[in-house]
Design a protein that fits this description.
The chain has 285 residues and is mainly alpha-helical. It folds into three domains: 109 residues, Rossmann fold; 76 residues, Helicase, Ruva Protein, domain 3 (Orthogonal Bundle); 65 residues, Arc Repressor Mutant, subunit A (Orthogonal Bundle), CATH 1.10.10. The protein has twelve helices and seven strands. It is elongated. One of its GO terms (molecular function) is DNA binding. InterPro entries: AAA_lid_NorR, P-loop_NTPase, Sigma_54_int, Sigma_54_int_dom_ATP-bd_2, Sigma_54_int_dom_CS. Keywords: ATP-binding, DNA-binding, Nucleotide-binding, Transcription, Transcription regulation. It comes from Desulfobacula toluolica (strain DSM 7467 / Tol2).
Length: 285
Amino acid sequence: MIGVNCASIPGELYESEFFGHKKGAFTGAISDRAGRFQAADGGTLFLDEVGEIPLTMQGKLLRVLQEGLYERIGEEKTRKVDVRIIAATNRNLEKEVAAGSFRKDLYYRLNVFPIEVVPLRERKKDIPLLARHFLNIVSGKMNLPVPYLTELNIRELMNYDWPGNVRELQNVVERAVITSKSGCILFYLPGNSSKVKHDEGGLRSLREAQESKTVFTEKQINTKIRQNIIFALEQCNGKIYGPNGAASLLGLRPTTLTSRISRFKIKKDELCLDQRVMSQGKKHK
């Protein structure tokens, strides 16, 4: 199978890329060149981002799809190929046809067996599986341990609409792996509270409060501190001690965090953990 990204080809080079050229056919043609159709003869040609092909090229593409015939640039010989075509696009080709930017006959020639892949926001059940897949790939490439994906992480990912689709998810996961702290992973999403730095004591909205001149009562502050400790424990799957523990994430001593867990009466049943274990009394290496 031969693949070609139609969006990456300069407009004046489409014909040469698809069909090839003869030596001397134009400036820079220093030797004969076989095009992608010849390379895929007897196999499959994958046209990615087919909606990017300019109108001036679409007629020539239609001819080779219908008749299997083409000529190289600068050559009179007609060549024949037998190629299976797979085309993909993120554009709505029906709208492109209505707007006159994509040939109707080419659209129907390509639209033999359409497979529509709905956006990620419409198949959110795939997000946990994809996120774990990308975590394994990115961590392997960077030679890093695979971070732990908590239930809270999954909820954050599921609550986001992903306008950039799967590519955005992959980029978000890669950034999270780069910035993860020894197993605790934070995803940076628009509107995600995990982007706000954890202040000592856990008041994540202090900066916003200062900017808006908001005054919190002591009870409200304690509620925010308690919520932030729970958030950190969930991020670290209940682990307190060590470089990948919640104390390190919050910038607190483990003993201080343990005291606050007791003070705020935080129980393991309140935490969304894959493994309901919260180590309060024993240091983990």
